[in-house]
């Protein structure tokens, strides 16, 4: 232990916990979308508390778990979530634009599509809703370097003016990729507004 009592020791974000009344549906969705695989299942994980609680710990990497899914009978979705304090969204990052686009195609074939898509300067991000209506962002860093994207966020006047960036039509980006444009060329054109959707997107869908 250190004698530096006032030194901040910064931990990393390890996992999130989600409560749900759609236990099996949520497990299936997070497996399909993020590749979350089960690690441990438990009934009444905290002992007998007067209700039948289910819990499943899942992960998609080397961590023992990334999501703790807690099934509680009778829970319903919050239709007025935008009026309540909460975690607004969670995000998962891909290494490359191609990984993100390939995932978009795979999920589209499963009937899972994003409700908002944007090039935000530092990232290209697709926002989905899970079965409970929680917003899940799938994203990639356009710089491929967190130190550079952090610097962009700090100093770019364009980012400061509108951090949400430019809304994009993913199908137009797929076509551009098929035509041979590089990931960086696509990002530059997207951030300039070249791939905006024909129908305006509503950011309130993320609230």
From TrEMBL:
VOC domain span: 12-141
Catalytic activity, EC: 1.13.11.39
Keywords noted in UniProt: Dioxygenase, Oxidoreductase, Plasmid
Pfam families per record: Glyoxalase (PF00903)
Highest taxon in the source lineage: Bacteria
Matching InterPro entries: Glyas_Bleomycin-R_OHBP_Dase, Glyas_Fos-R_dOase_dom, GlyoxalaseI/FosfomycinResist, VOC_core
GO molecular function, one term: biphenyl-2,3-diol 1,2-dioxygenase activity
Protein known as: Biphenyl-2,3-diol 1,2-dioxygenase III
Naturally occurring in which organism (per UniProt): Priestia megaterium (strain ATCC 12872 / QMB1551)
């Amino acid at each position: 232990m250190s004698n530096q009592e006032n030194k901040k020791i910064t931990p990393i974000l390890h996992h999130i916990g989600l409560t749900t009344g759609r236990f099996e549906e949520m497990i299936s969705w997070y497996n399909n979308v993020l590749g979350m695989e089960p690690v441990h299942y438990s009934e009444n994980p905290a002992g007998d508390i007067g209700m039948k609680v289910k819990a499943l710990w899942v992960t998609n990497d080397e961590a023992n778990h990334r999501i703790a899914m807690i099934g509680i009978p009778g829970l319903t979705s919050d239709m007025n979530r935008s009026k309540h304090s909460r975690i607004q969204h969670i995000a998962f990052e891909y290494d490359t634009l191609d990984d993100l686009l390939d995932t978009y195609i795979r999920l589209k074939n499963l009937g899972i599509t994003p409700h908002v898509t944007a090039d935000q300067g530092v990232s290209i991000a697709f926002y989905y809703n899970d079965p409970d209506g929680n917003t899940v962002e799938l994203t990639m860093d356009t710089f491929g370097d967190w130190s550079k994207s952090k610097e962009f966020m700090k100093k770019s006047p364009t980012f400061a003016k509108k951090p949400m960036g430019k809304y994009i039509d993913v199908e137009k980006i797929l076509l551009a990729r098929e035509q041979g444009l590089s990931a960086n060329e696509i990002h530059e054109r997207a951030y300039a507004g070249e791939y905006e959707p024909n129908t305006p997107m509503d950011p309130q869908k993320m609230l």
